[in-house]
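Hi C.,

You asked whether I'd gotten around to modeling the 151-residue construct. I have! Everything is below, sequence then structure, no commentary in between.
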Amino acid sequence: MRIAEIAVFVKRMNYRRIFCDDNFSFNKLNVVDTIKTQRDFLDDIRVYESDHIVKAYIHICDGEIKELYTDHFFQGEGIGAELIRYAVCQESANHLWVLEKNIRAISFYKRNGFKMAGERLLWNDTGQYIVKMVKDMVMMGDNDLNNGDLH
């Protein structure tokens, strides 16, 4: 339930200004439906927990970072960077897709060693584009999660 809550609220914070669709943001996007969707790939999700609080999660499948969300209250603490290191070093993640207009996410991924791959796709029927970012597989060092536990 906690990862669905994180997903819903972070998506609302980041995507509402991109999609400008309050019906989707506040009616269609909800915790109950998100839980149902996430059940299909729970084995591919790793959560970041600290102080008995799930603060973030990452969904990795076949070398792709499918989702990375950190609860709004814990952003800026380096948790996302730790999850990226884990994904690259432990799960051999080497690419992801991100909304082209999500400049904040693109900047975050660039700071963490990803670069634009030059691929762009229309995302479902949203009218928005996603762009592919790739990671050079250079050793990033040991994955030492000093502040939290990943499981």
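If it helps when you're writing up: DSSP finds five helices and seven strands in the chain.

Thanks,
B.
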